[in-house]
């Protein structure tokens, strides 16, 4: 067997010039592995990032909506409390008598609270719902609008009785 053939059969040798060595190494290199299959679009990084952002935005929107609706409900119920006290002052007296007997308020606070106008407080709470807690247009906003149709004329008449011209 000729000498060059023996070297090629024996594999790379260490006495060859670098150019011949590179050619021999390339010729003897194993076949390259096939390229990995391309992943499905829904398994890609960009899809994961976009989905994460969208889910985060949906959760934030839901939390903000819940916060506004629950605040609207609380303000509406406060308005209802004051309006019920306006319609039935005995309820207000019973409530503050209980607060006074439990020593949560003193006699001076009791006198101030009993003198406070409940129609004014109800109007302010209903107006708060309409001004601050929409959008979203929740059932509490709609209930406040309905109640304002009843309360606003009474409130304006009360202001006129004090000599104040109501502003629309």
Describe the 3D structure.
The protein has about 170 residues and is mainly α. The protein has a domain at about 80-90 and about 115-168. The protein is built from 7 helices and no strands. The longest helix has about 45 residues, at about 45-85.
Task: Summarize this structure as a short list of keywords or feature phrases.
mainly alpha, 168 residues, 7 helices
Q: Could you write a compact summary of the structure shown?
A:
The protein is an all-alpha fold. The protein is built from seven helices and no strands. The chain is elongated.
**H/E element string?**
HHHHHHH
Tell the overall outline: elongated
What fraction of the residues are assigned to beta strands by DSSP?
Answer: under 5%
Radius of gyration: 41 Å
- The helicity comes to over 70%
- Beginning-to-end CA distance, first to last residue: 113 Å
Largest beta-sheet details:
none
Give the rounded overall mean pLDDT.
86
Number of helices: 7
Structural class: mainly alpha
Strand elements, count:
0
Are there runs of 5+ residues with pLDDT below 50, and where?
A: none
Blueprint of the fold:
Blueprint: H1 3-10, H2 18-28, H3 45-87, H4 89-101, H5 107-115, H6 118-132, H7 139-161
Helix pairs in contact: 3-4, 3-6, 3-7, 4-5, 6-7
């Amino acid at each position: 067997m000729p000498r060059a053939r023996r070297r090629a059969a024996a594999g790379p040798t260490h006495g060859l010039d670098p150019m011949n060595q590179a050619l021999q190494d390339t010729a003897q290199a194993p076949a390259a592995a096939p390229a990995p299959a391309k992943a499905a679009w829904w398994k890609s990084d960009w899809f994961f990032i976009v989905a994460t952002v969208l889910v985060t935005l949906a959760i934030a929107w839901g939390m903000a909506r819940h916060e506004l609706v629950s605040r609207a409900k609380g303000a509406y119920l406060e308005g209802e409390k004051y309006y019920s006290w306006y319609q039935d002052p005995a309820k207000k007296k019973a409530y503050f008598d209980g607060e006074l007997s439990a020593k949560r308020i003193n006699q001076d606070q009791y006198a101030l609270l009993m003198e406070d106008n409940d129609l004014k407080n109800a109007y302010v709470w209903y107006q708060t719902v309409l001004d601050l807690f929409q959008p979203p247009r929740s059932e509490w906003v709609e209930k406040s609008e309905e109640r304002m149709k009843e309360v606003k004329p009474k409130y304006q008449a009360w202001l006129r009785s004090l000599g104040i011209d109501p502003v629309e």
